[in-house]
Amino acid sequence: MSPRTGAPEDAYTAEPYLPDRGGLPALRKAAAGCRGCPLHREATQTVFGEGTAKARVMLVGEQPGDQEDRQGKPFVGPAGKLLDRALEEAGIDPAEAYVTNAVKHFKFTRDEPRKRRIHKAPTLREAAACGPWLAAELAVVEPELVVVLGATAGKALLGSSFRVTQVRGTVLEEEIHGQPRRLVPTVHPSSVLRSDDREAAYRGFVSDLEVAGRLL
Predict the structure, then answer these.
(1) What distance in Å separates the CA atoms of residue 108 and residue 52, rounded to the nearest whole number?
(2) How far is CA 180 from CA 103, 139, 164, 172, 208, in A?
């Protein structure tokens, strides 16, 4: 079914919303109106990637969180602050990285008495629907290296068999959206915050990022 007929989100693809030309500003403007899957209904806004089009490294996470959804920028909540600190420790300047998510709208459930919004993992179908945006970001930025943050991002880029625990901290050479890419997978920074042994989890996270830093 064409997204132009019936309910656009039923088609589960962002493809019709991509601009014919232009760089990151054109993509960001077009993504603001994306209705390619049902997640746009409840989210406050599209949260597109941030950073320079000349970035040597692109970091790809799962989806926006509560703070990101409210502010319209990726990685501005607690996990983003931890990511910036870990990048600096690993020798990667956060200001020179491009950060984005596999899914551009916040998916959540409500914590009923207080109405708190609780993160809910996107499905493979939702990540696939958002795939054209990520492909377009990769095509414009052309990073030397992609750092994959967590399982959802890994499955969006590398397929449903991806297991972050099996390949974290290693260098992968894969074809992504028709182009050869170098990738370093690691955990999502939010998993470090949830860990019972946060210090050990953080050291492991930094160690993975140091692998990426040595490639740049």
Answers:
(1) 29
(2) 22, 11, 20, 10, 21
pLDDT number for residue 1: 36
How far, in Å, are 97, 99, 152, 170, 211 from residue 63 at the CA level? Answer: 17, 11, 9, 23, 24
**pLDDT given for residue 7 in this prediction:** 73
CA dihedral 204, 209, 210, 211 (to 10 degrees): 100
Q: What angle do CA 189, 27, 36 make, to 5 degrees?
A: 80
Cβ atoms of residues 186 and 164 within 8 Å: yes
The pLDDT value given to residue 10: 87
Contacts of 190 (CB under 8 A, 6+ apart): 65, 78, 79, 119, 150
The DSSP string of 38-92 is GGGGTSSS----BS-TT-SEEEEES---HHHHHHTSTT-SHHHHHHHHHHHHTT-
Q: Using the predicted structure, report yes or no on whether residue 2 has a pLDDT greater than 50.
A: no
Percent of the chain with pLDDT over 70: 96
Closest CA to 33 of 16, 53, 11: 16
The two structure tokens encoding residue 45: 């806004």
Output the six-digit token pair for 142: 């052309």
Q: Measure the CA–CA gap between 77 and 165, rounded to whole angstroms.
A: 24
CA angle 169, 193, 38 (to 5 degrees): 90
Site of tokens 């941030």: 50
Average the pLDDT over each of 2-16, 64-78, 110-124 and give the range with the smallest value.
2-16
| DSSP code of residue 182 | E
